[in-house]
Design brief:
Number of domains: 3
CATH architecture of the largest domain: Up-down Bundle
CATH superfamily of the largest domain: MFS general substrate transporter like domains
Number of helices: 17
CATH class of the largest domain: Mainly Alpha
Strand content: under 5%
Radius of gyration: 21 Å
């Protein structure tokens, strides 16, 4: 069956309903990403496990999310966007309740793995629902509305999570999203537009499994190495095995007719170099968010709410300035923004080396946070535009999915490597080492952009 698209000069009630569903479903996934970091110290206080438990709490979600987000689009095409979205919402709700009720860290981590599977179903299905319902300029406006609304989750998440931890329990922080899940499910019952399915959609479960197993082995080795040592067979065996399986996954993508990861996309210069920059920049972002939130609570003595608010200037700068940076980069090209944005963020990270004892947020943290926010706002939109602008418009969907998956995997690997970076303990010296490591990753991201990104040629006036 071919997809049907609702076309109207103005949004119909059904279009508004579908946009509300897409926003609410995506809000759930983004909210959880921003809630978890402020809850990490409280989780360890309750369940134990130290830094390793904190790393697995973050990485279990990112592992299944990053591994499956590429295949989730195919699942959505094969079984219907609305159906997959409904299943994803239900699974996310079940996993959230399981996390909140987890008696041990092992149960929590298993539930986080399930939550990542559900998250991989939500975001691609939400976007696919929009693209199959809206057309032309109205589609662009709908996606813009979706982007702006879901950005609110990044503002609300740390604050809501911090308040939940401080006023009640870290467990409450994971059931905040039950209400928006219920709302999205109720709204789905009112949809009258026929669901979209493609009879020739191909779901490559073998590639998805290879990707998950390969990344899982590498992540296990990186997280457990500080505890067991590289000489332990479980560590080096998982590391080598995971690397080999992931190499098999990449090799398979070059051989099959309908790859989950189309390697041909990387023949476009800006797509290849832009994704390399994404790997470095988003790895630094994931590690920075983890380290700052945990250190400010465990070592500097801030409450969970205060720790959540401490990095709010970064999100606000992103919301206020990123569209303007994107507009200017659209006129002059993305190369300069993608170079100086990450380098500016690197400067903000290195300013965190002033953190010491006695601790002062206003003089030791805020200056770096502000500089970091400005650099991030200058980077995100031009980076996305450069990557997606390098592929044909007919392949923008898979191009976006690949870039999103690389960003998630970058955070996954960076957080997994934290123990090796800080020496197994996030004390002041470890915090400083992490700040330097984040700064180096960001500076390399800027250098890669300068060397590899090319501004599009100006249109011929004739």
């Amino acid at each position: 069956m071919s997809p049907t698209t609702v076309r109207s000069a103005t949004r119909s009630p059904q279009q508004r309903l579908i946009l509300a569903i897409a926003i609410t479903a995506s809000f759930v996934a983004f909210l959880d990403m921003s809630v978890v970091t402020v809850a990490l110290p409280a989780i360890v206080d309750d369940l134990g496990g130290g830094l390793t438990t904190q790393q697995w709490t973050v990485d279990a979600y990112l592992l299944t999310l990053g591994s499956l987000i590429l295949v989730a689009g195919s699942v959505s095409d094969a079984f219907g966007r609305q159906r997959v979205l409904r299943i994803g919402l239900i699974l996310f709700g079940i996993a959230s309740v399981a996390i909140a009720a987890a008696p041990t860290s092992e149960v929590l981590i298993a539930a986080r793995l399930l939550q990542g599977v559900a998250g991989a179903m939500l975001v691609p299905s939400s976007l696919a629902l929009i693209t199959s319902t809206f057309d032309g300029a109205e589609r662009g406006r709908a996606i813009g509305t979706w982007t702006a609304a879901t950005a609110g989750a990044m503002v609300a998440g740390p604050l809501l999570g911090g308040l939940a931890v401080d006023l009640a329990s870290w467990r409450l922080a994971f059931v905040i999203n039950v209400l928006p899940i219920a709302v999205a499910l109720l709204l789905l019952e009112r949809v009258e537009v026929r669901d979209v399915r493609w009879d020739d959609a191909h779901v490559d479960l073998v590639s998805a499994a290879l990707c998950a197993v390969g990344l899982g082995g590498a992540v296990f080795a990186l997280i457990e190495q500080p505890n067991l040592g590289w000489s332990d067979p479980a560590v080096w065996g998982a590391g080598l095995g995971g690397t080999a399986v992931f190499a098999w996954f990449v090799w398979r993508q070059s051989r099959i007719a309908q790859p989950m990861l189309p390697l041909a996309l990387f023949a476009a210069r800006n797509f290849a170099w832009g994704n390399l920059s994404t790997l470095l920049v988003y790895g630094a972002l994931g590690l920075n968010g983890f380290v700052v939130s945990v250190y400010l609570q465990e070592r500097a003595g801030l409450t969970a709410t205060a720790a959540g608010l401490s990095t709010m200037p970064i999100t606000l700068a992103l919301i206020v300035l990123s569209s303007r940076a994107g507009a200017v980069a659209g006129r002059v090209g993305p190369r300069l923004f993608m170079t100086w944005g990450p380098i500016t963020m690197a400067g903000g990270s290195l300013l965190l080396l002033t953190v010491g004892e006695p601790f002062s947020y206003w003089t030791q943290v805020l200056p770096g946070v502000l500089l970091f926010g400005v650099g991030l706002a200058a980077t995100v939109s031009p980076l996305t535009a450069a990557v997606l602008g390098a592929v044909d418009s007919s392949r923008a969907g898979i191009g976006s999915a690949v870039n999103n998956a690389i960003a998630r995997v970058a955070s996954l690997v960076a957080v997994a490597a934290l123990g090796a970076v800080v020496g197994g303990q996030l004390d002041l010296a470890g915090f400083h080492r992490a700040a330097v490591f984040v700064g180096v990753l960001l500076a390399l991201g800027g250098v890669v952009s300068w060397l590899g990104i090319r501004n599009p040629a100006a249109p011929d006036p004739a």
